[in-house]
Amino acid sequence: MKSYLYFLLVFLVACAESGGSKPSSSSTSAEPPKSAKPAQSTQAAATPAKRDKLENSPLVWKPTTSLASLGAIDLTGLDNVKLQVPKVADSRENPTLLGENKEKATPRIITTSDDVPAFVTEHMKQIISAAGLNVVDSGGTHVLKAELKQFYVDETDTYKGDVRLLVTLTNSSGTSVWTGVTGGSATRFGRSYRAENYYETLSDSLIEATSNLLKNPSFHDALTKQ
Fold it and tell me: Long-range pairs for 78-81 at CB < 8 Å and ≥24 separation?
């Protein structure tokens, strides 16, 4: 009996040990280690290069003066004038050149591929209209034909603009009633070789050239005659 109890006890102990044991809970897989170095971009950040050349710059109207600031324009007897302004002709030696910076041994230039005569024509018409004259596209009592001789800025210590036009005024039948030259200039200080300073100087010079034409007594008299 004792032997039987002994074997029964051994059997129960063995069953308890085999049923109670658990497999290891450690994971069989592990996350890959993270790289200590940050990922590098395959493309370098784009850094705009400093522009030191003003070739093929757009033409921009950027006046700093007003027509009114240049003095009154006499419109006496011009109420019935209808002025046509066809596209300005261009007789400049270099049609693309707008100006030069001469602060260094080798001058730096500003050029444009835009239509300078169209630009000048558009703004002359705007200035004349702002002065109080009636500007028309057709059926005019007079036609103002202009030839661009100079449209240029010389930059040294300052920006110096020079705009000059040869103007011929005809009546409705095409007969020339007045011919003359008008010009305008502007001078300003500014940071070296900056497009906006060229734009301002050219715009102000054109305003003065047009104002001087309208204030010319002989031109005024020619407009009063049909």
Answer: 78/132, 78/133, 78/220, 78/223, 78/224, 80/141, 81/133, 81/134, 81/141, 81/142, 81/223, 81/224
pTM over 0.70? The answer is: yes
**73 part of a folded domain:** no
Owning domain of residue 112:
79-224
Helices in the chain by DSSP H: which ranges?
2-20, 116-131, 195-214, 217-224
Overall number of domains in the chain: 1
pLDDT one-digit tens code per residue, 13-41: 444 444 444 334 344 444 444 444 444 44
- Any idea what the CATH number is for the domain that residue 156 is in? 3.40.50.10610
Does some domain include residue 147? yes
- Sequence letter at residue 111: T
